[in-house]
Amino acid sequence: MVGEEGAFVLGWEEVLTEEELSTTLKVLCMSEEEFKEYKEQDGWEDDSEEEENSTLSNEALSRLKPPCKKLLYDSVLLTLESYGSDLKAEQDLLNNKEAYEKLSRREQQALHVRYGQKRILHQLLELVG
């Protein structure tokens, strides 16, 4: 469901891998009975038209059902824990001109990428928290 890397792609305004995330959340939040029915029907063939017209925008994420929001929230926390430092540490390093300039160009670029990723994840925590 999630693809080879097992990750979802999030942007500032919406989920970029919305079909994968939507399907994953639906399946993981199903009761045992709903899952049996899902397996028997080989998925949701009838819902394909409805899903084409929906996007997982930030607004839609904030309206998810509580079990799906909790699952997403906990997943984001686990992802954030996998980083070696927190958002504040990245922000402090970016704001410390002397320390920042001591980093190699590659380390500076990596810092910007990590900081951006963490900001998006923190935004998601606010939406589903």
TrEMBL record:
Molecular function GO labels: methyltransferase activity
Biased composition (Acidic residues): 43-53
Organism in which the protein naturally occurs: Himantopus himantopus
Name of the protein this chain belongs to: N-lysine methyltransferase SETD6
Stretch list, region Disordered: 38-60
Compartments (UniProt record): Nucleus
Pfam family, one: Rubis-subs-bind
Keywords attached to this entry: Methyltransferase, Nucleus, S-adenosyl-L-methionine, Transferase
A Gene Ontology term for the protein's cellular component: nucleus
GO biological process, one term: methylation
UniProt cross-references to Gene3D superfamilies, sorted A to Z: Rubisco LSMT, substrate-binding domain (3.90.1420.10)
Domain Rubisco LSMT substrate-binding: 4-121
